[in-house]
Amino acid sequence: MRKRPSLSLPQLLICIGLLCTLTGAMTILSHFFSADRRFEQFTSRLFREEMTASTLNMHYTIADPAAFGITNYKPALPVYTSDQSESGRERCSTLLRQLSCIAYDRLSPENAFTYTLLKRSLENDQALAQFPYYNDPLSPSSGMQSQLPVLLAEYTFRTKRDVTDYLALLDQVDDYFASLLLYEQEKAAAGFLMPACSLEKVRKQCDSIVTTKELTQGTHFLQTTFEDRLVELQSRENLSSEETVSLLTENDRLLATVVLPAYAALSDGLCSLEPSGSADQAVPGGTAELSDSLPKGLALLPEGKTYYHHLLFAETGSSRSEKELVQMLLAQFQEEQSAIRSLAKQSPSLISMLSEEVTEEFPLTEPEEMLSDLQSRMINDFPVSNPTPSFSVKDVVPSLEPYSAPAFYLTTPLGDSDNNVIYINRRNSPMGLELYTTLAHEGFPGHLYQTVYSNRSFLDKNTDPARKLVWYGGYLEGWALYVEFISYDYAADLLEQSGQTDAAQAARLEKHTRSLQLCMYTLLDLLIHGEGAGYDQTATFLGKFGIDSPDVCKAIYTYIAEEPCNYPKYYVGYLEILKLRDTAKNHWNATYSDRKFHSFYLEAGTSDFSSLENLLLMTN
User: Span 215-234, mean pLDDT?
Assistant: First the structure.
């Protein structure tokens, strides 16, 4: 038998020391792994809960729920309840407590970033929940009465389960709208009901979006789009003719017996509230400065300025105070004015050559041509997304034209980057330069490109799906506006290549006048909702820039008052991206390039801008 070698005392001490070192290292590693594991369990549970709470949200977030561990769920629209605000605050508090029990300093860099994003978002949601009746889910310009049909019409049928889920959602539209009416009734009782002019707009939408005539004729877009999607699915899923007919019949039945009555009931319910929203309504903390027939800014509501502060962060992702934002906007305003004066000085005839003339001379006329040109011009400035995203261009259905933007893109979910559609509203159809830059905003390098590139990067890096729960309009719409302004330079290059030098200069001028206009509207948003400016003050402000038509001033004021933070969502987001780009140039120095910055921005995913800046400063 071979004799086991013995260890001397010094050797034994060395081994014991190594063992202690390894044990300590393993203990440290276990702490790190434990923190990461606990956090990932937390985010996984949170993601599943949020997805199953709203099937519509889930469908537009992930293409295959089973890939994210979601197999057992009931189709659901998020119905409002009277205790929703209180339960929302309690849920935020619970989630924040659970987060605080996880050791942030022991998380991996990726998890630590997600932790920060979730914490900031939850804290702001908790603050907003203290103002239960300041939100307006039925706003005239972007309320669910007009948005829900669009989301339903574009509800992709990937499997037969999607069809049955869709029909189950249709069957809940009456309960969903009834809950929104309950919310409006509670708002009215608390003194926060929207003014009569806004109520009337919403009622007219309810009366026209779904009509008996269209349903009887079988021409309503929720009938035609359902059949089109079902026919496409039939070829993939081998649905029998009997199944297809049965599903078509059920869709017609639900539209006639559930959806149509739901809109009628909502319209009637809002009509019954109109006396409360008439001229004798007293808005809490209100002012006699302007007619009660017009909406009022948030600043005139009790603690409205506090609410607006939190809403600004929720919508823009900017942590700056209102005072800082005003200063930043004024500085940009002066910069745009200076650029306009410089261009006008170079060519005095430019002022008379704005959009209309450029539109008539624009070299490209078809949307597909413009999108192809944009894709070719962006190659040097933006990272390549392989394979090239496929897309189609469709017209908005006529019945939705009055409530739709001139063009829009509905984001595709994780796991489905091939079903991209850009919609053009022929009723308000832009042309020429305006269409070109609009398609840049919605398509390339705008929302479509941003969504596909970010989603592919998200999946490639196996990013925590809870990141999809973080939403800041400033990150998304700021990007779309940022690349829209870049597209004006692309358009100018295209015009010069076509021998239209003057038109190219006019396109550059249009870029700065549009920026100036959006800057002005964003300043008005801060004045109306942050300072309590009324119609008279707004008209005076606009008059300084040559906008003196009472109808135009009223339209501008009304839209901004009804849609708080809409313009800041775009323009503050855009300015924050410019600030972030300056930070990148200073931090990366010689290694900076636009493509590198754009890659960083897109791969970071939706974030608030303070978190994005901190992340950028940690990269090389």
Answer: 94
